[in-house]
Structure formats: C-alpha cells, structure tokens
Amino acid sequence: MESKKNLKSQTSRSVSFVQRWKWKWSGNITNESLKIGDLDNDGNNEFVIGSITGTVGIFKGQMLWKSFENLGTITAVAIGDVWNNGNNSLIVGTGEGQCHIIEISKVNSDDEDSMENVITKTVTIPVPVNVSRILIADIDGDGYNELVLGRTDRFLHSFQLMKTDTSSTVTLDNNNTTGLAVIIIHNDNNTEKVLLREKKNWSFDGQLGSVALTYDQKKNPILMVAQPGGVVVLINKNGEIMKEKENTSNGSIEVSTELITDIKGVKGSNYSAMITMDGNINFYYKLKKEWTLQVNSQLFAISKIDCTNDGNEELVISSWNGLTYIVDHYMNVVEFDFEERVCAFIAGNYAIAPDKNVPCMFFVTFDDVIYVYYDICLSSIYLKTLSDVLDKDIEMHSDIIEELGFEPPANGKKRSRAQYAEIFQKLFYNTDLELLSEVHEELQERIHKLQISDVSNIRLNI
C-alpha cells in the first residue's frame, strides 16, 4: 500500500559535513553537464563538467586533470560504452547539433605517472540540434548500447554508433531511418569510418526531463522518459509507448520532473525515484509506487549514493536554495543546508585518491565555484531515540532483566517510559547483592567465551 507523508510530519534531522574542496570554474552550465564516471577506464571515477561557452573540464583527485575548449554550446554530457568495445568514452552534446566523443586511454609504458601517461582521441559527429539529454544504454535488448539523445524541441532519438576502417563494409538492417557515415583522419594518417544509424525516434507533448533505463519483471529493458507535472512515459524494447504514469504533482502540469533508476536496495536494484520541482519525492519498486514524500523546496536534481555503507543506496536531492535531502528507502530524511544558491548538483562515488572511490556531493554555485563534499558518511539516516538504544541493550540482556522480575513486552511492543524507569530504579537501588553476584559471574563467563585477550583490564566492582 502506498504511503504519503509531508516532511513536517516526518522525523528528520540536520547534519553538517566539513570535509570539502573548493574549485574555480567559469561559465554558465546546465545540470546535465555534470557527470561522475570512470572516463579513462582505470577503476577510479572522474568528475566532468561542461559550460555553454564550449569548455569541458575533467577533474581527477583534487585537481583539474584535462580540459577541452571550443566545443560549442555544451548542453549535456555522458560517460559510457558508446562504441560497445568495453571501454567508457565521454560524450559531449551541443545546441548546434554536434556530438563530441572523447576517448582517453593509457599508454603501455612502465612509467608510473598514470596522470599524464594517456592518449586522447576526439571524434565529432553531426546530430540533431538542441540536445539537452544524453543516455548510453541498451534500450532495445539487442546486446549493444544505443546513444539516446533528448532535445529541447520535445524529440527523442535512439542512435547506433559503429566504428570500422574505411575498407570495411557494414550492412544496415531495414529498420534504420537515417544513416550517416563520417570519415576520421587521425594524426598518424590512419582513417576510420564512423556510422551513425538512427534506430527510433519519438515526439512528446511536454519538455523532456530525465531519460533513464529500467527493467520489467522479465528483465526486458524499459525506457523511462520524464514529462512535466510528474508524468513518466514508459517505452518497451520494441520502441512502443506502453503507458504514461499518472500526474503526481500537486501544482501546475508544467512543473519539471526528474528521475533516477537502478537504485540498489534490499531487493536488488529494481528501485527508482522521481522528483518534481514543487517538492514531490516518489519512490518505486518494480515501477510500483511505494511512497510519496512532500517537502517545502523547489527540487531540481536527484542522485544516489550509499552513505551509510550498508549496501543500500540513498537518494540525494538538491534544491535551488542549497537545501539538500538525503532519503533512505523507508522515508527517513536527513537535511544538509548548503550555504549558497545552487545552479547545478550531482552526487556519486568519486575517486579522491587512487583506488578510493567514496560518496561525494558536488555543488556548483552562481559564483563560478564548485564545492566538493567528500567521503560522505552517516551511521544511519533513521533518527535513533533513547528508546531504540535501550530496547536493543535490554534485548541483549533479556535473561538478566527477566531475573529482576520484568516480563518481556507482549506482541513485540516496546516498553513504555514508566517501565524503563522501573527497570532502572530496581537496577540502581533495589538489586540484592546475591543476584548481582550471579550477574557478575555470568558476565565473566561470557567474557571468557568471547576469548577477550586482555581480561585483566576488565573490572566489575560490586
């Protein structure tokens, strides 16, 4: 059964994070121009940012590692295996109708300085104009990733990219609607042929929000396309629109919508979540809504990280005024109040050092500054009360409590404050020495069984 709550009636707490870096970055950006991923395929995740002035920056560790300029009006970036060769590339989309594909690979050398020991290749391919969303995923279940491009004029395109040498011939199937061949001449005079084949395209009534991939119960891919007002369009692997999920926004149908899929939880990674700018947070399992949470903020960005190190990924949701919510799968909320207004936000596992990918949050402000809060770690999202701690401790020593004459609560209920007071009253003031001596002997026996090495340091004074 779906749950629906307002944050005012929901237990939440505020937290502070102090470990952070501060980087300078100039130029206006869109939120889709931020990405975290393993760009150079070394197992360490990088942070990528692009500006509408045509500059892309790649950060590695605590520094700007590489930058590329004069790429056009950058509106979206993505990291993924677009060539289907097992290696990630950086895809940069522009408003002018260009798609830049940047490949960074290591040089086979004994040089240990891997920061500079790389080869960079850049391919530029003409694509439809006004790209605003990029997804690299196998959306039709054929075993090959497609390049999915969403546009501000409400069109969505699915392309297949293939790269061969110029002497090769590639046969396209009958389903292609557009084929484009681009000849690339490298600095070493080697040439390659890039084939761009449009497989499907769709038009929508509203502006495109997030485009993400999920799976049905038979593990068939389903493309999710967010529409204004909390509407999500589902497209099956054959390119057919299955249905539109109902409007979940409390306000205008023009309210922007963002979503995220493949969230890890206790039942696998079939969880997904959606936010709307008017403050709705919806959580789904296998496309079935589990709960809805309403907050008093204009939400614009959603990511996922495991900040409790329990194997379950929490939602990290940011608003324009900097207030950021960390939400677990049970609607427990932690708030982080960033001190400035935010123009772009992303969270994910980032390599702050070699072989150390840790949960991080990236805030980009209107003052051209990137704030990186790194190694985000919380003991729990749930706000533990004194009653929770006491219940756990008393349960561990239930036999001792029963010897004092207290029966366990019926039907799994928690003890009341009055019952706790009675237990402590008897423990502190009315416990007879004979019983306490028995408790002492039992504890000593437990210590011995646990094989504590330094038992001599443990003293129980009676």
From TrEMBL:
Pfam families: Itfg2 (PF15907). PANTHER family: INTEGRIN ALPHA REPEAT DOMAIN-CONTAINING, KICSTOR COMPLEX PROTEIN ITFG2. InterPro entries: Integrin_alpha_N (IPR028994), KICSTOR_ITFG2 (IPR031793). It comes from Neocallimastix californiae. One of its GO terms (biological process) is regulation of TOR signaling. This is Integrin alpha N-terminal domain-containing protein.
